[in-house]
Design a protein that fits this description.
By secondary structure, the protein is mainly alpha-helical. Helix content is 67%, strand content 10%. Helix 1 (6-30) runs antiparallel to helix 2 (34-56), helix 2 (34-56) packs antiparallel against helix 3 and helix 3 (59-83) packs antiparallel against helix 7 (147-206). Its main location: membrane.
C-alpha cells in the first residue's frame, strides 16, 4: 500500500477522525451530554469498520463507513444550528435533546480557556437521611472563546473530515472495482488459453497413430 494511494489517504483520514471523535467523546462524558456520547460511540465503531475494510479490501465496510458519515454530517449540522440558535432552535429550550433531560450543559460552556465561573451551592433534602448538594452556575465570564463556539468548531472539524472521508471512500471503492475488473480480465485470458490448449490437444489426439517397425540387422 503506497503512501500516495487512495487507500493510504483514506486510512490517514480515518486516523484523524478517530483522534477527533475520541477527544470529543471524552469531553461529552465529562459534561454528561449523553446523546452526543451515544452518537460518538457509533461513530468510533464505524470508523473502526472503515479501517478494517480499507486494510482487508472489504468494499461493503467502506460503503457502510461512507453512508454513516452522510448521517454524521447531518448530526453535526444540527449541533451547529443548536449552539448558534439558528431558526427555532435555542440552547435553553432544546438542550434536553443533548443531555437526555439531565439539565447538564456542555463542559466547554463553563470550563473554556480563561473562564471565570460564579457558582452557588444548593442543598436538596431527599429524605431525612440523604442530602444532595449541587453547584448551580450563575455566570461565566472572561472566556477567551465562548464555549458555544468551541462546540461549533468541534462539529465543523467533524464535518470537514467526514466530507473528505466520503470522497476517499468513493475513490477507494472505484479503485477496488478497477482491480477486480483487471483480475477478471486476466482470469478470462487464462481460461481462453486453457480452452485453446485443450482444443489443440484434442486435434492431436484425432491424428491416427502409425505403427513403427524397428529393423534389426543380422550380425
Amino acid at each position: 500500500m503506497g503512501c500516495c494511494t487512495a487507500r493510504c489517504t483514506l486510512m490517514t483520514i480515518c486516523a484523524l477522525q478517530m483522534l477527533a471523535s475520541v477527544e470529543r467523546f471524552v469531553f461529552d462524558i465529562v459534561g454528561y451530554m449523553w446523546t452526543p456520547v451515544l452518537v460518538g460511540v457509533i461513530d468510533i465503531i464505524i470508523i473502526l469498520f472503515g479501517i478494517f475494510g480499507i486494510h482487508q479490501y472489504r468494499p461493503k465496510f467502506i460503503y457502510l463507513y461512507g453512508i454513516w458519515h452522510i448521517l454524521w454530517i447531518g448530526w453535526n449540522i444540527f449541533v451547529i444550528c443548536l449552539y448558534l440558535e439558528a431558526g427555532v432552535l435555542t440552547l435553553q429550550k432544546n438542550s434536553n435533546i443533548l443531555n437526555m433531560g439531565t439539565n447538564a450543559n456542555s463542559w466547554w460552556l463553563s470550563h473554556g480557556f480563561g473562564c471565570n465561573v460564579t457558582t452557588r451551592s444548593t442543598t436538596t433534602f431527599i429524605d431525612s437521611t440523604k442530602v444532595e448538594e449541587n453547584d448551580e452556575v450563575l455566570a461565566v465570564q472572561g472566556c477567551v472563546l465562548d464555549g458555544r463556539y468551541t462546540e461549533v468548531i468541534h462539529a465543523g472539524v467533524q464535518i470537514l473530515l467526514a466530507i473528505m472521508g466520503i470522497i476517499g471512500a468513493v475513490l477507494v471503492n472505484v479503485k477496488f472495482a478497477e482491480e477486480e475488473d483487471s483480475f477478471d480480465f486476466i482470469g478470462g485470458f487464462e481460461s481462453n488459453y486453457a480452452s485453446y490448449n485443450s482444443h489443440a490437444q484434442e486435434k492431436e489426439s484425432d491424428v491416427p497413430m502409425q505403427p513403427v517397425y524397428i529393423h534389426r540387422g543380422i550380425h
